[in-house]
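User: Need the bound-state model for adenosine monophosphate:
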Amino acid sequence: MDVTGEIGEVRRLVAAARQRGCGIGCVPTMGALHPGHVSLVAECRKRVDYTVLTIFVNPTQFAPHEDLNKYPRPIEADLAACRAAGVDCVFMPEISSLYPPGYDTWVTVEGMSSLLEGEFRPGHFRGVATIVAKLFNIVHPDIACFGSKDYQQQSLIRQMVRDLNQPVEIVVCPTIREPDGLAMSSRNVYLSPSDRETAVVLSRSLRTAEQALLSGERDVAAVEARMRAELESKPNVRVQYAVIRDPVTLQPLTESQPEMVGLIAAYVGQTRLIDHLTIRLPRS
Ligand code: AMP
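Assistant: Bound-state model below.
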C-alpha cells in the first residue's frame, strides 16, 4: 500500500495503475476509520482494481464553533485499517497543499446547500463540494464511493457531478450500524457511556415514523411530531430537525407518498449526530 501526502505522487501512482489497465476508485474520508468506511472500500474493490482512500479533515466544511480541532486523528490505526481492507493508496495531504495561501475558488451546489444540514451548518456544503471536486481533479477516479449515512451529502455530490459533467460514477453504499441500531460515525467516540445508550433513540424514532407510515398514517406533520416527541423524551437530546422529505429533492411533504426519507439531526449531550431512513410504502 502506498501512502502519500503529495498531489504529484498520487497522480503518478494513479497514472501508473491506469497504464496497467486498472479502473480507479476513490473513497473520500476524514479518517478515524470504522466499519462504515471499510464497507465503502469493499464496495470499491468489487468494482475497480485500484482504490485510493483519502484522509483529509477538511477545514472548510467546519464552522468556527465546530469540532475541527478535536476531530479524532488516529493515523496509525487508520493506516492499519486501510492495509487490512486492501486499499492500494492512501492520500493524506496537508491543509497547505490543498488550500495554499491565496486559495479562492469554491463550488456551491445551489438549493441543496441551504436545506436541512445547510440550514444548521451554513457553509458546510460549500466546503464539502469544493473538497470533493478537488479530490476528483487530483485522483481522476472512474468511480467514487460514498455512504448514504450522510444522505444529503451524497445527494449533493451526485448533483455536482451531474451539473459539472464530472466523469465519475458515484456509488452510494448503505449505512453500517452498531448492533443496537446506532449509525456508525467517527463522532460516536465523543459520546459518554450514558449518551451512547441514549443515542439509539435516533434510529428508533426513524423506525417509529416508518411504522406509522406503513400503518396508513398519511399526515406527514403528525409523523414528524411523533419522531420529535420520541427524541425529546430523552432529557439530553436536543433536536435540530426530525422530518420526512422527498428522497430526491429533500423538499417537505404534506401527505405520504410511495417513497420518502426520514432525516434527523440532534445533539445527544454535546455530540451532534445525524441519521436517516428511506421509507417505502407497499403499492396498493
Ligand atoms: P467521513 O469520514 O465521516 O467524512 O465519511 C467518509 C465517508 O464514509 C462518507 O461517504 C460517509 O457517508 C461514509 N460513512 C460514514 N459513516 C458511515 C456508515 N456508518 N456506514 C456507511 N458509510 C459511512
